[in-house]
Amino acid sequence: MACSLHIAWDDGLTSYNFGPEHPLNPVRVELTMALSRELGVFDAPGLSFVPAEPASDEMLKLIHDPSYIEAVKRAGRTLEPDEAFSLGTPDNPVFPDMHDAASLVAGASVAAARAVWQGETEHAANIAGGLHHAMPGNAWGFCVYNDASLAIAWLLEQGAKRVAYVDVDVHHGDGVQAMFYDDPRVMTISLHESPLTLFPGTGRPSESGGPGAEGYSVNVALPAGTDDARWLRAFDAVVPPLLREFQPEVLVTQHGADAHALDPLANLMLSLDGQRRIYRELHELAKTTAGGRWVVLGGGGYELVQVVPRAWTHLLAEAAGTRADPDAATPEEWRRFVRERTGDVPPLYMTDGRTPEFTPFEAGFDPADPVDQAIQATRRAVFPSQGIDPTL
């Protein structure tokens, strides 16, 4: 059944660009939009585009320090690094008009949140968003402004009392966690590769919320090598019970595609089909726990041709309620665009040829299995605070 979906878009969203040698290349967004268009995703009933406008300084101050905002503006003018704010590092190079580009990404996520909160649409997306590492006073992990946190903060300013944030990027959503660590109005859930093997080195189950917000920061730290079946088992064991108990007014989700086996920066082993299953599960949870109010953001993803465009096209199709046929061939016009734009060989189909299934955690706990150990550590850390028995 088709759903109403607003996509926050402006061509300037691809100007968030650290340079041709940087892993976070905006071509991934270009290729996603082109593939979605060629596959007819944008023709879905109820789908429309809403304009994205830059977040104002006053809006950015909901989550970022004024001195940091000024530093970003200054660095974008002078192109001089500013180590005090982590600007000009290998991860966060300065680039011309950096503030303009980053504030547009942030504004697009607020536009998506606004469309959902004001009842203009059931779901809304900013596929260029999901910059979840940025901190209040510094850039971090390829992220200048934290658009996910800004969208949540805007919702709280409008009177939202319960917002859930679920992050399926392979990296821990540390910036969003940090900004709402002491706020029980926001539940942050991050499923990511273990901090023992991957940046940013945070996201342990023991990071479970500050005073008065115990159990509202949720971290599932998965071992390197986790595949579709084990990842989905962990998701099913943790996320649905918490969202059913929390009953958010809005569900905000971050969809970094870098948990895929082909991603060059991480070590999880998901397939495109496993990721597609994740999108379906989150869509269903938005309907059953958040009254259908779903804000969809992009995120990381560094296999720019084979993975991100197909993954996010499936994501947008899922949010539109249409679902792209996984057995469909990628359109020839899109393949031509990929070759012209990147010089790479495009994927031929919208699937990796997998049919992901999993055994529910409740069917039995294996104390020797590292994924089950991770699941149990998370449940024990947060379930009791939410009134849920971690042993069930």
From TrEMBL:
Histone deacetylase domain boundaries: 22-317
Keywords for the protein's UniProt record, in alphabetical order: Acetoin catabolism
Pfam families hit by this protein: Hist_deacetyl
Record pathway: Ketone degradation; acetoin degradation
Keyword Transit peptide: no
Family per similarity comment: Belongs to the histone deacetylase family.
Protein name in the entry: Acetoin utilization protein AcuC
Source organism per UniProt: Nocardiopsis suaedae
